[in-house]
Sequence to fold (348 residues):
Amino acid sequence: MAITAKSGPTVLLTGASGVVGQALLEQLGDCAVVCLTHRKPVCAHQVTTVRGDLTLPYFGLDPAAYGDLADRVDVVVHCAAVTGFGVDSNRTNDLNIRGTENVLAFARRAQAPLQHVSTAFVTRHNLARNGYGSARPEVYLGSKRLAEQAIANSGVAANIIRPSVVIGDSVTGRIAQFQGLHAIAGALLKDALPMLPLQPGTRIDFVPQDLVARVIASLVRAGKTGGEYWVTGGNAAPTAARTIELAMTLGASLGLELGMPRFVSHDMVDRLIRPVFIDALPKAQQRRFDDMLAMTALFDTAEPFTSTYHHVPGVAPLTTEDIEDAFTASMRHYARAKGLTRLSEAAA
Fold:
């Protein structure tokens, strides 16, 4: 396996086809990047692809090939994870916990520092309740906590990066795969969101993918480990009411006639909305509702997230205006991709 010589370090990247992984590839142009992928090669300029399975010892590689790869790698960036709330718990734990343990074994063999992408929502401990239907956010969050614990116990030099919800590029809105927040805002843009189980003052914490990628890339180059970096809006995150206002303003600019959703409590969902309206829906629609309910529950706290990513060299903090502009760009990209605009591109 030949790796193209670059001025920066050689990086083993997992999850290269995901949202953060795709954005990160654009930030690692000076590095020799080896993407460990399970199914298909990564289509990026001057990137090497290795087929493997994170859940298997040696990634399922021949021991000689595994050793050769370890001898070449300087830094490991672990982005791969199951993030869906409706995924089987065995599959979630297999990749998120066992996969991380195998990545740690590789980093130890390579004597390479690890940049591990976790989630800011590991701080949410009050989600084990009835009312999310098919969605199980506590399974995902539990797996991420155990992965972090494995890193802490491993002795491997590492940084933990904890982004909140990741949206598209801050300028173009482009993203590898639409995420849960896109689905909620998308339902609003389709005028299919009559209610939202949130309080108007709740902060909706999200960050653009290029910020997360910039933080990781800077840590790769800095060579320092032992840190925990919260990549969040924090005190700059907009409220639910403001987020809805931004979506409504965008919808109007695209020629969409939208109704304002009603803010309701989770208790009202459990007592009235689910038994009367949701339980009668087709299973696919019930699952989408459950995912929305689980995601809004993640934001259901009075305390904003800690935000420390600006401590990374060369990374400046985003303002509330920056975050709101990124949200508008992300939702505009979603609307155009889904054919929701009623005005011409020139008019929009």
Notes: The first helix runs from residue 19 to 25. Residues 344-348 have pLDDT under 50 and may be disordered. The radius of gyration is 21 Å.
